[in-house]
Model the fold of this input.
Amino acid sequence: MSDDSSSPAPLPRHFIQQIIDADLASGKHSKVVTRFPPEPNGYLHIGHAKSICLNFGLAQEFKGNCHLRMDDTNPTKEEVEYVDSIQEDVRWLGFDWHEHYYQASDYFERMHADAIRLIQMGKAYVCYLSTEQMREYRGDLIKPGKESPTRNSSVAENLAAFEKMTRGEFDEGKAVLRAKIDMASPNVHLRDPVIYRIRKAEHHNTGNRWCVYPMYDYAHPLEDAYEGITHSICTLEFEVHRPFYDWLLKTLDTSAKPQQIEFARLNITYTVLSKRKLLELVQEKRVQGWDDPRMPTLSGLRRRGYTPASIRKFCEVIGVTKFNSLSDVALLEHAVRDDLNKTSPRFMAVLDPIKLVIDNYPEGQVEQLEAQNNPEDPSAGSRIVPFSKTLLIEREDFQEVAPKKYFRLTPGQEVRLRWGYYVKCTHCVKDSAGNVTEVHCTYDPATKGGDSPDGRKVKGTIHWVSAEHAGDVEVRLYDRLFLKEDMNDLADDEDWRTQLNPQSLTVIRGKVEPALLQLKPGTRVQFERTGYFCVDTKDSTVNRPVFNRTVTLKDSWAKQVAK
Ligand code: ATP
Ligand code: MG
Done:
């Protein structure tokens, strides 16, 4: 049996699919409504992609809806730039929210009215303890909490006090609204959590309309309920928040009662996925921006040359579980390599050039050779590549004294020049320091196109460009951004920045066949034998492409599993 990765066995249904299957079978729901609720305080990253593929994917599978909701309840950290980038990235990944675009800030009025309802029910009160006092009063896992002095004030007093908060009559931090639940609960999130706080800041959507803002734990269940979400999927750390989620919706007796379901967040080797850290990388100029091709952001991966299909495939392969784990970044690279192998046209580019002179080739002659664009896909057509007496090849494709099984150029050995001729190496020329400066060979005119009429075989095929016709381009080679495999496993006093890989970017000048100069920004290609590259969308100019290496050709992951 072949284990061809293009025809994998169908994946077993994961636990969330099973929950939904049961809810539809029992009639609990007739239509599935999920949501992807990013806070617009940064760019989306590959971890978000996991959540996007899950939520939009479930809506697709069950013919329901998935809402895109900006969770913009915090006025100080959010920006319109992020809102725009989030929409662009979700669309780029291949998903569509149709008319279901929402903003948590659109519900401020309703959330505020619900807070008043809680006060009227005797389920919320205004508290004047300072942050430190509140922490002290909350107790801990062993010690029960202590009641706030205002916990038992009357409904009328609380309504008046909340009204004062809302009008801006208190300074920030001087008063909060808290849910009245249970100060002795074993779950500290039920010890009268804060649900509204004062923030005298302008909000990018509601301006200065509000100076009280709902806390995340209060806002999120309400957003879900207002929108009629059926399955509210979040990451595992919210499991302990679920009792409050359920308490709030039950107490307010909302018509929709979404179910919160937690799954394990994505962690990847040699990568950080915390928005705070990614923001610091940008602000401290350790990378060139959110879309730096080394960033795990969707905009970075896009600029690097990743395809949406490869990211979706990766998210499918890693699966959905309840256990936190660390996924190998090689899996992501494998996914993009697999996709690009099928779709990208091949070209020749020499990244570390050395001259190859064909001594018996006529001086001044130029031939236009035909090269296939994708040997795996005849419909990709062909192109013309100029050939002449002086070529450039990779320095590593010549060795003066070669080990056994070296099938490339070494004196006396014959190789195929891709799409060209058989050439036999004769000698090399060195400078005074002993460095090879030129390799010399002779060609066999009868082998044009790359085959010998007498059936003579060669074991090596190398790529080349014509020195006189080659374009000179900037090529950016990327390596992992961090040196440590598990970036979540740092000592308490260890600064994560010390793990930055100083060699994560190498800029070189490459020599490329002329056809590559005409490519448009964003085009993805394979440089034969060296990797997949993408024309940079920011720094390329007309006929001066800059190439970003998406991934090398060698599939180190496949080798590992083959062992
Ligand atoms: P922070 O990094 O500041 O904790 P966040 O990653 O939770 O923020 P949000 O904008 O709140 O950022 O995330 C939007 C959605 O994406 C949430 O539903 C969250 O659960 C999900 N998400 C975020 N990071 C990951 C991850 N690494 N793996 C899977 N899902 C994630
Ligand atoms: Mg969050």
